[in-house]
From TrEMBL, chain A:
This is Phospholysine phosphohistidine inorganic pyrophosphate phosphatase. Belongs to the HAD-like hydrolase superfamily. The gene is LHPP. Gene3D superfamilies: HAD superfamily/HAD-like (3.40.50.1000). Its EC number is 3.6.1.1. PANTHER family: 4-NITROPHENYLPHOSPHATASE-RELATED, PHOSPHOLYSINE PHOSPHOHISTIDINE INORGANIC PYROPHOSPHATE PHOSPHATASE. GO terms for molecular function: inorganic diphosphate phosphatase activity; metal ion binding; phosphatase activity. It catalyses: diphosphate + H2O = 2 phosphate + H(+). Its main location: cytoplasm. It is an enzyme of class 3 (hydrolase). SUPFAM superfamilies: HAD-like.
TrEMBL record, chain B:
InterPro entries: HAD-like_sf, HAD-SF_hydro_IIA, HAD_sf, LHPP/HDHD2. The keyword Metal-binding applies. GO terms for molecular function: metal ion binding; phosphatase activity. The gene is HDHD2. CDD domains: HAD_PPase (cd07509). Transmembrane segments: none annotated. This is Haloacid dehalogenase-like hydrolase domain-containing protein 2. GO terms for cellular component: cytoplasm. Its cofactor is Mg(2+). Belongs to the HAD-like hydrolase superfamily. It comes from Esox lucius. Keywords: Coiled coil, Magnesium, Metal-binding.
Length: 312, 292
């Protein structure tokens, strides 16, 4: 089942494999192909690969903390788990599709919750989007959360020739979506960037719609395919791996989003483990196309297992 | 276009066994083609007969001319914002000669589906459309009915709908139009919001309006004619023309309303005919497709 699914993916790469930016897309196809055969052959428990592990990438919302009205609350054991990872010989990075705040403010919030974390260790879509916009000389119309707008302060935005959408939450009104739609439909060659493509995330009051839903809405309205910046775009994971200087097969991604965290990481050749916190739902473990290399109850349990197996 | 007429019409007429005396021959660029025996014309409202509160120039008079030919006429619309009564009032105020029983809307189709399946819907439709759902049980909803409802397409209500869907409630879409034309420009239709919810909850909406084949066939039901004997006129290449042509009807695309340059190329097979506006469509029908 696993190997069949993976082979299917290589025959016809999902659109987020066709992510176009600085690298020619062929590189991604070729890369994905080799990766898939490797992971098909080595379909073993993630615990077997822990000894050769050199780095860990953590998703943030749903792994470190649960979002909420008051900024969120840490998931029990996660503050300590990050501390333990940091004290180990493993490299540690954080990879988020969070687009409701600038990276600085977001990191400051986590520090207030007690997490030992610095801005340079955190990879989020907005700064990556800014780099792509500048490189391609694009002027965005922004449909993003007010608090992430400052990330785009130094990007030219008059007379827009593309649209960037992020998790705008309450700002996802008909009026605002319509404005973005009109920009796109008025362009000869509509370009739509989506900061992630998540379906939903968990807040105190239940599951809430994420940016992917509105990305799909605009794609359908304008007959375009969005370019995804953030997880699960392979390039986004690759940037984190490059920063750690570690090959993909020696790194592990831990996240609560089966498709975007686990599946995205696996497509890059990493191991992917899903935590049963955050947006996790039991039916995730029977997903038709993505199977995690392992499931753990929470980050604390994952770290405990990793460090124990490594004799630390 | 010429080749399409000459290839489509004879084969369809013959296949359906329409007696030869109902058809006759016209010369098209020297090629003889059998005329189809046209019995019914379905006409879209918004964008075809009128754009908001303005009639398409000459449309009223063209409709009167069409009525004098021996074809039945029905008005089929995906306008989900308004109940039938309001639609009719607007058309009458614009001097169209139309009766309420001639209007077939996607709201009617949605209501009958909800009743058939005995569901309690969360109604994402404009308040002005609620009249067509009066008397239905809507407490503790176990289904989502979604139309064009800008006032309800806010984050809060979309989340409410999404959570119901995640619990297994069926999603019923009155239609999935991408966008429509307003006085101030193009505006999003319900389709993008339906598509978004489908993606979020990993489900597939049941669509009841155009371009569903069942919608067109349901509209023809009391008209004593089959799809091959009917024609649809509309401004939406996919939802009006493509949907109708998929059932075997002819489709005429008009370049009014939401039409944008190149729309005729968006469907395969292409429209039977593309013309500037409703009066030209009627001219073509009277000249080429009817006996009188």
């Amino acid at each position: 089942m696993f190997s069949i699914e993976k082979t299917t993916l290589t025959a016809s790469p999902p659109f987020w494999c066709r992510f176009k930016t600085t690298y020619p897309s062929e590189i991604f196809y070729a890369h994905a192909l080799s990766v898939c055969y490797t992971s098909a052959m080595a379909a073993t428990s993630w615990e077997d690969s822990v000894k050769s592990l050199k780095g860990v990438i953590l998703d943030m919302c749903g792994v470190l903390y649960d979002a909420g009205e008051d900024g969120g609350t840490p998931i029990p054991g996660s503050v300590e788990a990050v501390k333990r990872l940091r004290a180990s010989d493993l490299k540690l990075r954080f990879c988020t599709n969070e687009t409701q705040a600038t990276r600085e403010k977001f990191v400051a919030k986590l520090q207030r919750m007690g997490f030992e974390i610095s801005v340079s260790e955190v990879f989020s879509p907005a700064p990556a989007a800014v780099a792509i916009l500048k490189e391609r000389g694009l002027r965005p119309h922004l449909l993003v959360h007010d608090d992430v707008v400052p990330e785009f302060d130094h990007v030219e935005k008059t007379n827009p020739n593309c649209v960037v959408i992020g998790d705008a939450a309450e700002k996802f009104s008909y009026q605002n979506l319509n404005t973005a739609f009109r920009v796109l439909i008025g362009l000869e060659d509509p370009v739509l960037f989506s900061l992630g493509r998540g379906k939903y995330y968990k807040e105190d009051d239940g599951l809430n719609l994420d940016v992917g839903v509105y990305m799909k809405a605009l794609e359908y309205a304008c007959d375009v395919e969005a370019e995804v910046i953030g997880k699960p775009a392979p390039m986004f994971f690759q940037k984190v791996l490059d920063d750690m200087g570690i090959p993909s097969h020696e790194s592990l991604m831990i996240g609560d989003d089966l498709v975007n965290d686990v599946g995205g990481a696996q497509e890059c050749g990493m191991k992917g483990v899903q935590v049963r916190t955050g947006k996790y739902r039991p039916i995730d473990e029977k997903h038709p196309t993505v199977t995690a290399d392992g499931y753990v109850n929470n980050l604390a349990e994952a770290v405990e297992t990793i460090l124990k197996l490594r004799g630390q | 276009m010429t080749s399409l007429i000459t290839t489509l019409l004879p084969s369809r007429s013959l296949n359906k066994g329409i007696p030869a005396e109902f058809g006759f021959h016209v010369g098209v660029l020297g090629v003889m083609a059998t005329k189809r025996a046209l019995k019914a014309v379905l006409i879209d409202l918004s964008g075809t007969l009128h754009v908001e509160d303005t009639a398409v120039p000459g449309a009223q008079e063209a409709l009167n001319r069409l009525r004098q030919a021996s074809v039945a006429v029905k008005f089929v619309t995906n306008t989900t914002k308004e109940c039938k009564r309001n639609l009719l009032a607007r058309l009458i105020s614009l001097n169209f000669d139309i009766k309420e029983h001639e209007i077939f809307t996607s709201l009617t189709a949605a209501r009958s589906l909800v009743e058939q399946r005995q569901l309690r819907p969360l109604l994402l439709v404009e308040d002005s459309a609620l009249e067509d759902f009066s008397g239905m049980e809507i407490s503790e909803p176990n289904a989502v009915v979604i139309g064009l409802a800008p006032d309800h397409f806010n984050y809060h209500t979309m989340n409410e709908a999404f959570r119901l869907l995640l619990d297994g409630a069926p999603l019923i879409a009155i239609h999935k139009a991408r966008y429509y034309k307003r006085k101030d420009g193009l505006a999003l239709g319900p389709g993008p919001f339906v598509t978004g919810l489908e993606y979020a909850a990993d489900c597939q909406a049941t669509v009841v309006g155009k371009p569903q084949g069942t919608f067109f066939l349901e509209a023809l039901r009391d008209m004593d004619c089959c799809a091959e004997e009917a024609l649809m006129i509309g401004d939406d290449a996919r939802d009006d023309v493509g949907g109708a042509q998929n059932t075997g009807m002819l489709g005429i695309l008009v370049r009014t309303g939401k039409y944008r340059l190149g729309d005729e190329g968006k469907i395969n097979p292409p429209p039977y005919l593309t013309c500037d506006s409703f009066p030209q469509a009627v001219d073509h029908i009277l000249q080429h497709l009817t006996c009188n």
